[in-house]
């Protein structure tokens, strides 16, 4: 197993020390930094691009969910919490795992096993010089009281709604508080295509393609959504898909 770069974001020094004691038993995990609040954690993660994040949920000023919302790409995340209600929620939010304080050694070992399995499964790696996400990159979306950690490759398409962007995956359609142009700059070109001024599609989720008026194409996505490709983009789409 290759080296796993880890960051701890936790406001309690005692809790940070406890985590570090557990991590000492795993030579493959290297702690590259720790922070006691969200803003310092955000800076640390952006500067070091860790593989693994140990994240306390309940912190003063900003909580762990707010940190995830600030990040363009979310590392593999293990939530740590003293509150069972948060633990249940974090599990629903698709965190890889959660650890209830005080942390149990066997429970910690299981969480690390999950991390290693996930890293083994993630064969796709982004070029260090490429600022775009990959299909396996995780992004955090919060819309009202609901939160998701979703793989970029599992998103079927994006759509402009005013100054923001609606994200389509599974049966969900939450809002992402970024413009479609901001989103497009980060998406892997291998999967995503700008169909028109309003929509970006994941080509893996196209069900049918039919000719439409004035040289345009009409796509039906696997979730039943219909997308009209502009005339200019239809030429590019045919070229991209070798039609």
Automatic annotation (TrEMBL):
Task: Give start and end of each HTH LytTR-type domain.
Answer: 139-243
Q: Which GO terms describe its molecular function?
A: DNA binding
Record key words, sorted: Coiled coil, DNA-binding, Phosphoprotein
Q: Where is coiled-coil annotated?
A: 105-132
Give the 4-aspartylphosphate positions (modified residues). Answer: 56
The record's section on InterPro entries has: CheY-like_superfamily (IPR011006), LytR-like (IPR046947), LytTR_DNA-bd_dom (IPR007492), Sig_transdc_resp-reg_receiver (IPR001789)
Domain Response regulatory, chain residue ranges per copy: 5-116
Supply the name of the protein.
Answer: LytTR family DNA-binding domain-containing protein
Q: Which residue spans traverse the membrane?
A: none
Top-level taxon: Bacteria
User: Matching Pfam families, A to Z?
Assistant: LytTR, Response_reg
